[in-house]
Design a protein that fits this description.
CATH superfamily of the largest domain: FAD/NAD(P)-binding domain
CATH architecture of the largest domain: 3-Layer(bba) Sandwich
Number of helices: 15
Largest sheet: 7 strands, mixed
Number of strands: 22
Radius of gyration: 23 Å
Oligomer: single chain
CATH topology of the largest domain: FAD/NAD(P)-binding domain
Strand order of the largest sheet: 8-7-18-19-20-17-21
Strand content: 15-25%
Length: 477
């Protein structure tokens, strides 16, 4: 017997919440009223498409993994296809990326796992590593379900330079964090699993790489032609949910039959009664909403910290010469505010048009550097342009070209700030989340980057898992 009309609230209109809403609609096509509450004025969370120099340029996440370690389509690709966007998927050009070390752009060594090499001979002088330090001590690197900081494991086996010059910039490009503070199990789950059986880091990396079933030649990343906002809009439409924007959920109350949401300003609150809730918001608002109904869960969830970053978009004049790269990453030890840059129109061929602008997108700031982002937009843009210019000028000199030509002034530019955007998963995060989920009251599910990791595929899968949990609860209620 099908579910008789149920009301489900999805709190949070990012991609995790929208994926949950889509899955709920698929599972309960006519038996549910779904309401998505987003306190900001727009859906999408960190997916936000903008315009720069007449081109579509992302102001948030620019791409997603096209496949998982098992070789199958990632959750993001699968969702895009279900939403009718399969033909709109585009892939980056096959261009190498570089590391900015000592002011020079050096190609990133191949064959690493998020910067951790399985073969130290591939480092090509980028970092010194002592092979003798990675000894077989007669036991696996990690015990069952043990978690450590990425930096602690790699430093103990390969030395500091591999962490500082390779792993830190690779992890920093995704999390804006430092390897010495980030959980191995959350950021590199494949390596964590093989470290439970392998006795050396070299063997663990190679085993993790061998287990990956990605198809050779298949693009690693994908994006949506026309922008990620198309994915957001398509998900909202497919969910057939009622969308509530600009009205924050201030309180969550358990009732005899489900849940009551208290919304809007305190002087004039309104309420909504629902049968189940998917909570797809960052850690701090999730902790606040859980404080009365699940205090222990609220405390565990609330320990997560976040890094703030900013993006600088620059539309340079047509013909501006850039290195033959998709972009570069900068190790924290270089001291720059720019931690990464993407040569956007080179990386994404569908945007590279004859006579069109040369678009560069720079990522600014790392965990613990929030004070460096307290400049106004104009100052941040100028800082980014100066640091980019210095790095590119050095690259031109190495190619035998004249030095001293400044980076041209952009014809158009913007700054996008993402305050408290990127979770910093400390060791033990996965266990804390598992314990929190186990302690949740029935009819309440957690979803999103605060719990399961960053990246669009991870967030989509997280939202879909939450929808599955809610659907199961409603079927059994």
């Amino acid at each position: 017997m099908g579910i008789v009309r149920k009301r489900i609230a999805v709190i949070g209109g990012g991609i995790a919440g929208l994926a949950a809403a889509v899955r709920l609609r698929e599972q309960i096509p006519e038996g549910a009223d779904i309401v998505v509450f987003e306190q900001s004025g727009a859906l999408g969370g960190k997916l936000r498409t903008g315009e720069l120099g007449g081109l579509t340029v992302e102001r948030g996440a620019e791409s997603f993994l096209a496949s998982g370690p098992d070789g199958a389509d990632s959750a993001a690709v699968t969702l895009a296809r279900r939403l009718g966007l399969g033909d709109a998927l585009v892939h980056p050009a096959r261009q190498p990326a570089a590391l900015a070390i000592d002011g020079r752009l050096t190609p990133i060594p191949g064959g690493t796992l998020v910067g951790v090499p399985g073969d130290l001979s591939t480092l090509n002088g980028i970092a010194d590593a002592d092979p003798a330090a990675d000894q077989d001590l007669g036991r696996p690197l990690l015990g069952p379900d043990e978690d450590v900081a990425v930096g602690a494991l790699v430093r103990s086996r390969y030395g500091a330079e591999v962490v500082d010059r390779l792993v830190d910039p690779m992890l920093g490009g995704v999390y804006a964090g430092r390897a010495d503070q980030l959980s191995l199990r959350v950021t590199m789950p494949q390596l964590a699993r093989t470290a439970e059986t392998e006795h050396t880091l070299r063997a663990a990396v190679r085993a993790a790489q061998a287990q990956s079933r990605r198809v050779p030649g298949r693009p690693v990343f994908a994006a949506v032609d026309g922008g990620m906002s198309r994915l957001v809009s398509a998900a909202a439409t497919a969910s057939r949910a009622r969308i509530s924007l600009g009205l924050p959920v201030r309180e969550l109350i358990r009732t005899a039959t489900g849940w009551r949401l208290v919304l809007g300003p305190a002087p004039a609150p309104r309420t909504e009664d629902v049968d189940a809730v998917v909570l797809a918001v960052p850690a701090k608002p999730a902790s606040r909403l859980l404080a009365e109904v699940a205090p222990a869960v609220a405390q565990a969830v609330g320990t997560l910290t976040y890094a703030s970053v900013a993006l600088a978009g620059l539309a340079l004049p047509p013909g501006t010469v850039l290195p033959e790269l998709s972009g570069f990453l900068v190790p924290p030890g270089e001291g720059t505010l720019v931690k990464a840059a993407t040569f956007f129109t080179r990386k994404w061929p569908h945007l590279d048009r004859p006579g069109g602008p040369v678009v560069v997108r720079a990522s600014l700031g790392r965990a613990g550097e929030e004070d460096r982002l307290q400049l106004d937009d104009a100052a941040l843009l100028e800082w980014a342009r100066r640091e980019l210019g210095e790095l590119l000028d050095r690259a031109r000199q190495e190619l035998g070209e004249p030095a001293g030509a400044p980076l041209p002034a952009p014809a158009a530019s913007w700054i996008q700030r993402w305050g408290g955007a990127l979770p910093q998963y400390a060791p033990g995060h996965a266990d804390r989340v598992a314990a929190a989920r186990a302690a949740l009251p029935p009819g309440l599910a957690l979803a999103g980057a605060a719990f399961d990791g960053v990246g669009i595929p991870v967030c989509v899968a997280s939202g879909e898992r939450a929808a599955d949990d809610v659907s199961k609860f409603l079927e059994e209620a």
